[in-house]
Amino acid sequence: MLTYGTDQENNFEPRPTPQESEIDREEATMDLQSINWEHHGPGSWLSICSTPGVQWVSAKTGTTRFYEVAQGLVMGWTKKLTLASDTNRERCPEPDVENAWKYVKAYFEDSRASAFGVVQRSNFENRLRVHFQNLNRPDEDVAWYALRNAVYAIGRRVVASVEGTGDFVEIQSESLRFFHNAFSVFSELLFRPSGLMAVQALVVMTSFAELLGSPAIEYMLCASAVRLAQSKGLHRQPSRTWNLPRSEILHRNWVFWAAYYYDKNIALRSGRPSAVDDDEISCEIPHELPAGDESGIEMAVAAIEHARICAKIGKQLLSTRAFNQPPETLFEVMETMENELQMWRDSLPDNLTLRKQNGSLPLRNSYQYKPDILRLHYLHWGSIIALNANFHYPWISSLLARSEPIFEDRMAKISLRAAEASREILSTLKYTELDTSFPSPIVFYFPMLAVINLFIYILKMPKVETVASDLALLDLAAGHFAKIHFLTSSQVSFIFARDVAALASKAVRRASASASLAGPRNTNRSNDFSLDLLSVNLSGSGEPVSPVFASNADFEALDTLSSEFFDSLSAAGDMIIF
């Protein structure tokens, strides 16, 4: 095993030292004043809002309007990354018996969170009956308190969605009270003696945090769930000498793999490190539930298997170490990962795939558009985008590839692949019925990721034949986010898609006018992917402001342009500081 150290023996290697430019970049992200900052890695969907991202978009669109657009997206999103400072620390009343059972029924029968078998229905309901029979006795089991309130929180949202009644603000306020009840014992779950139920509670709380409109604190919740699970050995297959019942082994494994699924997907979405080292896992992926309904097993297992591929993508392509590899090595890894994703997709049964019937789109409300199928569909294409992100984003690819025809051609194909994946996601929006119990990744993250990547592709290739249909997809996405605004009573409101659709249209018109003035030219190979063109021109004078996007540039050089926008948003390299 390779070990880092200062020894010069054969089995030791000097600890990697960051390059000077990387050290400067890290120092630039340190704020000596006490401000709230959030890190998003280079492959994150917010990368476009970093300094180099904003500069590149501004150059391509010929306007500084994107400064304001990016600020609106960042500021709107960061409000949801933490709990409100005035969060009620007092425990709120729990639902009465009738409503409690209604929420529990909705959680197990209609919630997407229950698909992973984290909570066994029979065990939970038996415990709840005992609870209601002993209401006069003090409740000292904090794990049980947290778990049932987390279930209530999700169940309340699902009931409102199924019944189609109530104002979103009121419903969310009520469900948040139950969530805050669970969160009020967060430290006890981690630091007091506990069993498996404490891990269950944290995983269910993570599920709630992923619901549309919930506080987006799932990264920290999930990391806590994973750490607690590992501290209890759930990542290891129980020894036969322990003589555990098979049902208990299955339940332990389901709880761990559910936490794993959330961890790997959250890490990939945010560009942050995972809390799980895959080399330490020995517990088996279960293919049956201990008891009860098993209708969701295929979807859950498929999602877990996909998460294992996400782990490889994050480690081999999006990590700091990966950035130090030559582009040829990264291309090989990308090809391997693409093949794995295709094999995973091909292995899905027909009832879990989103396919066209006789060349036409399936009818609305058909099985292809159920949330679980959408989840797998988006997971696949979202991974394809993540796979190609480093070379699709010009402000990153300029640091990785050289200005040579072979690299330009390869990056053109990579960007086309990212655009194709984006189209696959956006094309489903028109035929998808939304409700407020949908997880945020399905209704917000993946559509937004697709919007951003298709927007980048249009700016790169504003004269390709698909540009008209691509602009139409951006308009469709703008309508999707407008619908979310309506469904959530303005609580989830992002106009980014509408704004970038307008900017993309402007860029296409600008490119068309420029082509008309330039006259006929050789179109055998587009120059839109030439790395030399990454030198930006924001002044409109025809002279580049700075050749900051040359292939040997570092991210610090990208801070040469200043704007009032960055008074409230500091960005350096792959870090976005709020």
UniProtKB/TrEMBL annotation:
Region (Disordered), start-end ranges: 1-23
Transmembrane segments: 442-459
Biased composition (Polar residues): 1-11
A Pfam entry, by short name: Fungal_trans
Molecular-function GO terms, alphabetical: DNA binding; DNA-binding transcription factor activity; zinc ion binding
Protein keywords: Membrane, Nucleus, Transmembrane, Transmembrane helix
InterPro entries to which the protein is assigned, alphabetical: AtrR-like, XnlR_reg_dom
Domain Xylanolytic transcriptional activator regulatory: start-end pairs: 218-292
GO biological process assignments: DNA-templated transcription
Source species, domain of life: Eukaryota
Keyword Transmembrane set for record: yes
PANTHER family: ABC-TRANSPORTER-REGULATING TRANSCRIPTION FACTOR, TRANSCRIPTION FACTOR PDR1
Protein name: Fungal-specific transcription factor domain-containing protein
